[in-house]
Design brief:
By secondary structure, the protein is of the alpha/beta class. It is 35% helix and 19% strand. It folds into two domains: 189 residues, 3-Layer(aba) Sandwich (Rossmann fold), CATH 3.40.50.1820; 61 residues, no CATH class.
């Protein structure tokens, strides 16, 4: 395994396998408030047969924080990461926000993207849906908490779901001065939330083989989005998994099987 801090670009971890030069690369892109570990169950399933590049998006994980957001900035950061690793034939796989970024990357560099897999997100603008998350995160006074449990108690006043609490608290850490901090850029994400929720692209974006996987219990990817997806991704297929928005964590074996079958024929 090789870990690289990518200067001012983004942080990535390349998971090498024996004779990896002969392996195709799957690039894993996490969602909002996440980091490169979020898709680890997918990574572990494929890392013996593919080379895997897991990345932290800008403003997340160990990647630098940005002053402003745009899908162009995020996509260009991913592209710079691919170039730094010398990758020229990749499969892009993204969840939620990472799925939108993956779609933007595929649009910008279709000549090196062999296939695209999008987990539970559509190429559309979404109405605000993270009010409770922002309220909970802002309810945590990082200067006064003494433990992760203190943060969890404050977060739980607004975020009731234990799984969501655990997911968010994965990004809480103590810096070298023992001060509690967030890995993600909370202020920047909150400031640019409307842009993060938007989608400015139109027309045909990527004509390569594409798979959208929907969580049956999620309202992110809906039947009505098919009419939007088809002209943008004319070679797209869709599969439904009996899970929520976090389908890869809730039903990892099924999701991995669906992706495996898609890649086997593409």
């Amino acid at each position: 395994m090789q870990t690289l801090a990518l200067n001012s670009v983004i942080h990535g971890v390349q998971h090498d396998v024996e004779n990896s030069s002969n392996k195709q690369t799957i690039v894993l892109i996490h969602g909002l408030f996440g980091n490169l570990d979020n898709l680890s169950m997918i990574r572990r399933h494929f890392e013996n047969d593919y080379q895997i590049l897991s990345i932290d998006l800008p403003d997340h994980g160990l990647s630098p924080h940005t002053k402003t957001f745009s899908f162009e900035i995020y996509a260009n950061s991913v592209i710079a990461c691919l170039k730094l690793h010398g990758l020229a034939n990749v499969i892009l796989l993204g969840h939620s926000l990472g799925g939108k970024v993956a779609m933007a990357v595929a649009h910008k560099i279709p000549h090196i993207v062999n296939a695209l897999v999008v987990l539970d997100i559509a190429p559309v603008a979404y109405s605000p849906r993270h009010h409770e998350v922002f309220a909970g995160l802002n309810n945590i006074d990082l200067t006064s908490i003494s433990s992760r449990k203190d943060a969890q108690v404050a977060l739980a006043e607004h975020v009731l779901d234990a799984g969501t609490q655990a997911f968010l608290l994965k990004s809480l850490y103590q810096n070298t001065d023992k001060q509690w901090s967030w890995r993600f850029n909370l202020a920047g994400i909150q400031k640019n939330y409307a842009l993060l929720s938007d989608w400015q692209y139109s027309g045909e974006l990527y004509s390569g083989n594409t798979l959208f996987i929907k969580g049956a219990d999620s309202d992110y990817l809906l039947a009505e989005h098919q009419s939007v997806i088809s002209p943008m991704f004319p070679n797209a297929k869709a599969k439904i998994v009996q899970a929520g928005h976090w389908l890869h964590a809730q039903k990892p074996q099924i999701v991995n099987s669906v992706i495996t079958n898609f890649l086997r024929v593409n």
